[in-house]
Design goal:
It contains 26 helices and eleven strands. The protein is α/β, with parallel strands linked by helices. The strands form four sheets. Strands 2-3-6-1-7 form a five-stranded parallel beta sheet, with helices on both faces. Helix 21 (about 420-445) packs across helix 23. It is elongated and about 110 Å long.
Length: about 525
């Protein structure tokens, strides 16, 4: 202890840290949220009960591959081979997990985990397939892009953060998180560079670190950058001589990775061209997906993947490029598709939106040109209906149907729709003027009476300027009440007639009124 009485002792520092942890709802002894137990979020006396509740979903797993495939058909169009392969792999994985829970001796036996690699272009449904499976099975799911990771000790995220994210996705239920699904997209972007000098920390380094996760390892749930956790561990070690252990085992965590793998397709193409006489003659007719179906482990290695890494991904399946008819079917029959979202968006403004089959076909054809798969549908829909979403909520239109002409020329179709509803729009604009008059009276205790000519003029301004009648009135008569109150004080009037001339030149008319009110007051007139 320091001789300076003003210098805090280590005990004082320890108490300050404990107060900090306590205020953060963290147990200053164990370092976990209050009321939670280290291994799975339950109190010690409730540990067995909590574990059984967490494992109930895995114990009850009894899905068959065909049932999983049928469920995926509701959400994802095409990709039949991918659905079949995924369904079998999921059933095998979770049946084994269930058997290990029921028979602990089986847990110690050797088992080749069926981690999966999905190959195929963007927008074909790879992520959606995995997300739907996790939702069906009822296990926590985490998605991440491989490009954000780097080898431990360098700038970037640590791959073990994936497992920590999985625990958070399971609401800190470690027991349930042990059976979750980790999905890593753009895995092809971490292929190690062929001509790199020095350490390839974002390629080979990440692959090496993922190896142990995909097989089996214990991951510390407190990362090296968790300062609060490190302070807790320091105090625990000081009190007991032991550091608190809080880890999660990845033995039953299923890893699914995906990517476009265009470079692998090139490797296969070159290999096949060399190994087969005459193969190059028809290679121009083959697409990237055709070559990916022929990919072997040696092609992945030649493309920059470690043999051990690609060996941990024994289940490989290629997703097909979507055609225009496939995109059309996505809009017509896939549950929760983007077109359903658009209908809900318009319904939020009490607008009933419908669309013809011809329009859907045109959207699908244009989306193909975007070359982003199903994501192209969103691009086309946004471009086609952006002005509809902006304009229609402020009109009297409560329903409209999109036709092929709407997609071909959205602006012209919108103008036609607005002109066809011009009369009902005028009624709405008149209602807006009435609403402005009411609010003006409530705010300033002054009554404005617009004659028919003034109302007609405001309606025309609203249509030609593409502004609401209310906003035009607010702009025209923003400071009008100051002058009207002077007139009211001179004359006792609080009701004023607004003519077209007043709307055209509100400041000039108001000035004339004020001068006249002073003249009348000076002459003794009311």
């Amino acid at each position: 202890m320091s001789d300076d009485k003003n210098t805090p002792s280590f005990e004082d520092f320890r108490k300050q840290v404990e107060d900090l942890l306590r205020n953060s709802r963290v147990n200053p002894v164990m370092g976990f949220p209050r009321g939670e137990e280290a291994a799975g979020g339950a109190r010690p006396d409730d540990q067995d009960t909590g574990r059984e509740e967490s494992l109930s979903k895995i114990r009850a797993f009894n899905l068959k591959p065909r049932e999983i495939r049928d469920y995926l058909d509701r959400f994802v169009i095409q990709q039949q081979e991918a659905k079949k392969v995924l369904s079998v792999a999921i059933c095998d994985h979770y049946n084994h997990a269930r058997q290990c829970i029921q028979n602990q001796a089986l847990r110690e036996s050797e088992y080749a985990k069926q981690n999966i690699i999905l190959l195929g272009p963007t927008g074909v449904g790879k992520t959606y397939l995995v997300r739907c499976i996790a939702r069906l099975v009822g296990v926590p799911f985490v998605k991440s892009d491989a490009t954000k990771f780097s080898e431990t000790g360098y700038v970037g995220h640590d791959v073990e953060d994936l497992v920590r994210d999985l625990v958070r996705a399971a609401n800190n239920d470690v027991t349930l998180a042990q059976y979750g699904i980790i999905y890593i997209d753009e895995i092809d972007k971490i292929a190690s560079a062929q001509n790199t000098t020095g350490r390839d920390v974002s390629g080979r380094g990440v692959q090496v670190n993922l190896l142990k996760l995909m097989e089996e390892t214990d991951v510390n749930l407190q990362s090296q950058t968790d300062l609060l956790g490190q302070m807790e561990a320091m105090m625990q070690f000081q009190k007991t001589g032991k550091s608190p252990a809080r880890t999660i085992n990845t033995r039953h965590v299923l890893f699914i990775v995906s990517g476009a793998f265009e470079s692998i397709a090139d490797v296969v193409q070159k290999r096949m061209a060399k190994s087969k006489i005459g193969f190059a003659a028809d290679s121009a007719e083959r697409q990237s997906g055709d070559y990916l179906k022929l990919a072997q482990t040696r092609d992945f290695i030649a493309g920059g993947f470690e043999p051990e890494f690609i060996g941990r991904l024994p289940v490989r399946v290629v997703c097909e490029q979507l055609k225009a008819e496939d995109l059309k079917q996505i809009l017509l029959s896939s549950e929760d598709n983007i077109l359903t979202q658009y209908k809900r968006d318009f319904a939020g403004f009490d607008i009933d939106f419908s669309i013809t089959n011809e329009a859907i076909g045109e959207i699908a054809a244009r989306a193909i040109g975007e070359q982003t798969g199903a994501r192209g549908l969103m691009t086309v829909l946004e471009k086609s209906f952006r002005n509809y979403k902006f304009q229609l909520p402020s009109t009297a239109i409560k329903s409209f149907e999109a036709t092929r002409e709407t997609i071909l020329d959205p602006d012209a179709a919108l103008r036609h729709l607005l002109n066809a509803n011009r009369d009902s729009q005028r009624v709405l604009l008149r209602d807006e003027i009435s609403d402005f008059i009411r609010r003006y009276m409530e705010t300033h205790n002054l009554e404005l009476v617009f004659d028919d000519a003034a109302v007609d003029f405001l309606v025309e301004m609203s249509v030609t300027q593409d502004k609401s009648a209310r906003s035009i009135c607010e702009q025209k008569f923003k400071d009008f009440h100051h002058g009207l109150k002077i007139i009211a004080a001179n004359s006792g009037r609080n009701s004023f007639v607004i003519t077209r001339k007043t709307v055209e030149d509100p400041e000039g008319e108001l000035s004339a009124w004020i001068v006249q009110s002073f003249k009348n007051a000076g002459a003794g007139k009311v």
